[in-house]
Records
---
Amino acid sequence: MKPELTSTSDSKQDKQPLLSVRDLVVEYSIRQGTLRAVDRASLDVHPGEVMAVVGESGCGKSTLAYSIIRQVPYPGEIKGGDIYFDGREVLDLDRKALRQFRWKEIAIIFQAAQNTLNPVMRIADQMIDTVLDHEKQSKEQIIQKAGILLERVRLDPNRVLHSYPFELSGGMRQRVIIALSLLLNPRMLILDEPTTALDVVTQVYILDILADIRHDLGLTMMLLTHDIAIVARVADRVAVMYAGQIVEEGAINDIFYRPRHPYTYGLIHSAPSLVGDLMKKKPIEGAPPNLLNVPTGCRFHPRCAYATSVCQEKEPVMEATGRWRVACHHWREIERGE
Amino acid sequence: MGGPLVELKDVCVTFGGDGLFRKRRGVEAVVNVNWQLAEGEILALVGESGCGKTTLGRVVTGLQKPTSGQMLYRGRDIWAMDRSDWREYRLGVQIVHQDSFAALNPVCTILHSLSAPLHRHGLARSGADARQKAAELLTTMGLMPPEMFLDKYPHQLSGGQRQRVVLARALAVHPRVIVADEPVSMVDVSLRLALLNLMASLNEQFGITFIYITHDLATARYFAQKGRIAVMYLGQLVELGPLGKVLEHPRHPYLQALLTAVPVPDPDVARQHQELPLRSLDLPDPSNAPPGCRFHTRCPYWEEVCAREIPPLELIEEGHYVACHLVRSIPSWHLLSVKRPSP
């Protein structure tokens, strides 16, 4: 059985997590050596929650997501750990079970998904293809379902179903993809940078639609992004990743207003904003490490203002208070605001 | 010296159009843009994709000849310059692109990339001199010690470091103006602020004028806090003025909508629900732009006049220009404030 992530002080743990990742290790074997993209990552996502995974490019968040549906791109490989979905071990699923698991249990929307539609197929045919690949249904049934979902993402089914992708704008294509991902009633949706290539007006519209869907369908979501502002708008909980590791995880307000990890603090206080005092903005010094050659001890120590000799020597362990976890030697001092 | 350093007069840029056999309407990427930029100023040029901001940046750098209108540098039309003025202008105005990897030759060392402009313009006497000058440039850019970087290739640097090298190269010829087109959008989030700070220090130290082209209003606010902001919509300049004032009291309905949409990295603010003040979400096709005010098809306040006449850019208060027929009747709009109980 999987070990508990939360500390025992939290007694109100009535709901079981829908998704549990335990000590996941994913490595890419490349010419220059072995690159560990995800290093002993553990994470729980409870039913109905929106969990945001934030981090910079190369921090391993996409690899983490692809591991969950067992689709790590070559030459990547899951080297250790467990992934439980609704109590079942995903890493033990055979081909057939995996096929049922993907899309029917968890659907994923990839980065720049608006470009993943087949350019020479009408939207209606892509919808039909997707469903028939997984289960037997009549075309009329599928089109009817697709129509309802397209209305849910505020598109006109009569127009969109008969269109080719090039006839739709980027924002419309992104909404088609969202509808497509919901066709088989998945319980969880993973969104990898869902709004990155879109204009701000379209972006806010997509986020509103996702909030509606989540509210109406009770969907569990995992959102991967580098953009702290989007997280602030939609997430319930936040996991912060740095150099392949989860360094802090907690409720949205704790993470934003009382961050315990200096990297979390840095991310939030270096994000330019339209509100608030510009003088309080501070950049994070240095740059993220090369994953082929990670720093000893705490991986963030070369960039950290709080770093002491212990940070160079010893890797911090994850400490939990309730459902708030942090891996930093100095989190207590940071919390006291020193 | 007096007079503006860079001035645009009725600049229009049209792409395509008049086909060989039939008259087609081209894409009017920039329509009648006028502005003046003083030495040492920072201007943030913002708008969504396809609004013409990059094209305008190319006009300023002489990479795009306006279809009509003039681009003046120190009061002289760059397309009617003699050789020596042209050379002075080309050295004086430099551009930094979004993609630093594409901007640097992958098979040349950093030293090579930096010394090429120095040799080309006779700014270095010898190879050793060029190396010395390149090292100084890298130091100015915060890439220290410079010896660590001079003999490296672009792929060996991080995105943030590469963008600093690109800035160093632009700086090598002592420019007066740098046009920075989305310089931080491909850089890791944790490094963006440091890069913007660096550009701001170049402005302060050397008095370099910056035109900062971006779709990101939050970084525009950060970088151009003491400067001005120009907002474009489908090729038209819709609002121009001191950044602080414009963001505090945006007058054009398009800017009001844009500011409503920008996500704020603060959950308490981000979760206050605000309707987008727009009639339609989709940007019209630029090759078939609406007549009159191009925003009228999406504007919640529009009246019949908006579809008929192009609104001129009008001065409404000190230094603040707006192109809107209804500017005096549009309700005032404010950014959401942070409502948080004190701890």
Note: The first strand of chain A starts at residue 19 and ends at 30.
---
Amino acid sequence: MIELFNVTVSIANRTILDNIHLRIDKGEFVYLIGRTGAGKTTLLRLIHMDLFPDSGNVVVDRFSSSSIKKRDIPLLRRKVAVIFQDFKLLPDRNVFDNVAFALRVVGANSREIKSKVLTVLSNVGLHHKRYHMPHQLSGGEQQRVVIARALVNEPFILLADEPTGNLDPQASQEILDVLEHINRSGTAVLMATHNYELIRNYPHRTLVLENGRLQEISRDQFLKNTN
Amino acid sequence: MRLWFIIKEGLNGFKRAPLATLITILTVALTLILLSIFILIITNLSSAFQKTYHQVQLEVFISPALTAEQQQQLVQQIQQYPEVATVTYISPQTALKKFQATFGSDLIGVLDENPLPPSLEVTLKPDVKHLEAIDRLANVLSTLPGVDNVFYQREVIHFLLYYYRIGLLISAVIGVVFIVITVILIFNTIRLTIHGRRTIIEIMQLVGATNFFIKGPFVVEGIIQGFLGSLLACGFVWGLTTIITHISPITPVFPPYFYAGIIGGGILLGFIGSYFSVNRYLKL
């Protein structure tokens, strides 16, 4: 479903990713860990086709970075959702409208919007706060709105770039619960994080990005390295 | 549905950033007012010149011995020249009346006879604006059989044409500068408005909106801002020219489709300004 072949990316004469191979299958939950500046965001941007490799190829579903046309990138992004640690919500719209916005910009009709938004808000536990404005929500709730907005177009994968970076431990736990729930319903999740404490209790396939190289580590190695 | 969303989002932009929108509309209005006033000044100066220049004529004195038929032939012959607009026969009697009306002297009373010869008044086409062409025409006419002399106010024509050309050059330079300033001011104001809302562009890109869909609301907003700004400018210019007409003997002359041009210009600037400003924030 997602495959990176011999991908190398350099930015300002510094090699960020060096000959990376990666495959993520449908419905997987994968952690991407590594120090700040290790290249986690760069890797997510490659999958979102916000950045293209200097060499190698990124294949996402039926799209390939070497051949994708500009006009097809929006189509890809409807199926590859992304969330960040900063929430990027529209401050002048309520929760419902923030989520509905993702459907409106792809031309969905009102009935479809209402039904999908209410469903996805229920899934993230915010149905009862649908008329609240972003400033009336806690950080964790705002991040859940962002997740709802990312999911409303039914992507096959959710890329989460440090989604708990701005949250307290309890809110972070809630976000991870939501991501687990999403994953169980079939959406793959690739979560970049350096909050090792948080992900200890949710074991999944773990990739480490270090010095531009990507390496998969076992649960035992992870626990050993992060102790 | 999608088009309606684009229009609605465009209109909502006014509610979301009312101050920025108001500033943009006022900037459009102010710059278009300055441009309109400049255009009106140029048009009216040009019109005044045309009126004065239209009075420039060649007086072709013809032999009193010519028969009426020969005079008619001569008129027709002169009429054939491409520089000539009209040819009017002035009899000695008409010339005398004109002289008396202009100078108030009774020539018959002094000289006992009318000394004025018959003549033809030749007016030039408005596009004949080269002294050399007028000189050439005068020379040709003076060689025609039956023509005694050709008289024209060469110095006056030279003076008029000289200052007309300088005026044209200066106004062209000022015009270009004005248009460039107008475009830059409007573009920058629109760009600042869009810069304040770049997050919405970022979110649209994240969730997979096409570039057309992202640009749409901003372009709609830009067009409406341009339209409203140009309406304000038209209202101001209309008011100003109406007052001038009432309090002075000047009746301003408007170029064809003046108001339509201002409104069209406002809309076009709004469209182009917003279109290219959004482009700066589109990574794709």
Note: Chain B has a mean pLDDT of 86.
